[in-house]
Every structure is written in C-alpha cells, then in structure tokens.
Amino acid sequence: PHADQQRLFPSVGLRATAHASRWSEVVKILRYVSIIWLQNFLCMAGYLVVSMRTNQYLSQEYVSVINVLLPIDNAFMVLSNAITVFCPQNYAVGKTKRLKDFLFLSISLGLAYSVVCIAAYAGLGKWYFGRLFDDPVIVANGAQFWMWYSLGFPFLSAVCTVRYYLDAVGLSRFALLSGVGELIGNLICATWVIPRIGNVGRSIAYPVGWMLAAVLLFAAYFGTRKKIYQFNTAITRE
Questions:
Q1: pTM surpassing 0.85?
Q2: Which of the 8 DSSP states describes residue 173?
Q3: Do 159 and 178 contact (CB within 8 A), yes or no?
Q4: Nearest residue to 179 (alpha-carbon basis) of 153, 203, 214, 147
Q5: DSSP assignment letter at 174
Q6: DSSP secondary structure string, 62-85?
Q7: Which residues of the chain carry a pLDDT beneath 70?
Q8: How far is CA 219 from the centre of its chain?
C-alpha cells in the first residue's frame, strides 16, 4: 500500500521521506547533545567531590590559592577548534593521510605548548603569588600548587586533541571516556589521596583525572583506528 501510494501521489511520498529524514537528524542531534552533556556532568561531579574534600581537609591558606590560574592553558582549545574545522571534511572524502598527519601535528604542538605552560607555572609561581599576597605561607602554597598542577598539561593537551578528533570522525560516543577518566581520577584523589598527603593530593587531582582520560581516549583511538581509516578504495586518499 505504501508503494502504491507513492506511485499515485509521489509528492506525498517525498514529503513523508523528507519528514522522516528530518526526525532522523533531530534524533542524531539529541543523541550527540546528550553525550556531551553527560561527559560534562561526569567532569563536574568529579570536580565537586574534590572541592568538598578540599574544604574538609585542607587549610584556608591553601584553599585561597587553588583558583588563581593563568589563562595560558586556554590555547589548548585552539587545537580542539582546529580539529573540528579541518578533520570532518577530510574524513568525509577519505583523505586518511591528511587526517593522520594533522592528528600527529596537533598532538605534537599540544605537547610542545604544554612544556611552555609547565615552565611558566613552575618558574613564575613564587613571583606571581608574591605580587598578590603578603603571607609567605600562602605564597609558598601557591608556588607548590602551580608546580604540581602544571604537570597535568601534557595530558590535558592529549585530551583536547584526541577527544575532539574522535568526535570529528563520527565517534562522538567516546567523548564519554573523557568524563569517565576525569571522574575516576578525581574520585581517587578525593577519597584516598587528599586525606593522606594533603595539599599535594589536591594539586594533582585534576592532572590525575586528565591522565586517566587521556589513557582511555588513546585506547579508544587505537581500538577504532582500523574503522576510522577503512574507506572505500574508490575514494581518493591524500
């Protein structure tokens, strides 16, 4: 009956097909939004638990410095934005070499810039906090926090590249691994590390989360790379 209806009333069939296609796109968008929302929720849940344990176990002198950060790490998002612009169009036409080269370049640039960030945080901590606070205890806490916190930048750069790369090649569901890794790392530090080693435990909470997120994302990439780069041989590859 449906085929007969399309033959007798072709415009009706076209409208029904277009309507179904629009709903399919809506479902895809909602699924994508749900994944990103859940990933952000997992990250925020981990941060909340760390904040609660920080206020419970650590001194106010230390708590006063943990929100003082340099904006230089925002540059990692530039790599993420570049990936979202460059990779989808090249993936769509099967240019696997470009994809691999751009991923390698992005990871390399991210690691190189993370070294710059580590040097800035480790080298400027005492001077910077000395300009903000007069209490030598707070200044020492701030310098220590920056030194340990900055060690997470190589992992953060990996998260910002691999996570968005998987998203760009149609594997957005693996974005959840970023949230899962950060949540697990933050929970470990909040429930076990902070109560035992105090300030250092809080300083490494986010880096540990980024490290686990990076490990999970790289595992997802290597586990799916055959699928990522398996295109029809008729597609031109450059």
A1: no
A2: G
A3: yes
A4: 214
A5: G
A6: HHTTTT---GGGGGHHHHHHHHHH
A7: 1-21, 23-28, 32, 231-238
A8: 14
**Which tokens go with 33?**
């939004």
The residue behind tokens 């697990």 is 184
| 223: number of Cβ within 10 Å | 10
Of the candidates 159, 151, 153, the residue with the CA atom closest to the CA atom of residue 204: 151
> Per residue in 99-139, pLDDT tens?
999 999 999 999 999 999 999 999 999 999 999 999 999 99
235: phi > 0 → left, psi -120 to 50 → alpha, else beta; which? beta
Spatial CB neighbours of 185, under 8 Å, sequence gap ≥ 6: 46, 205, 206, 208, 209, 210, 211, 212, 213
Whole-angstrom distance, CA of residue 146 vs CA of residue 15: 60
Rounded to an integer, what distance in angstroms lies between the CA atom of residue 202 and that of residue 32?
Answer: 32
Q: What is the pLDDT of residues 129-169, one digit of tens each?
A: 999 999 999 999 999 999 999 999 999 999 999 999 999 99
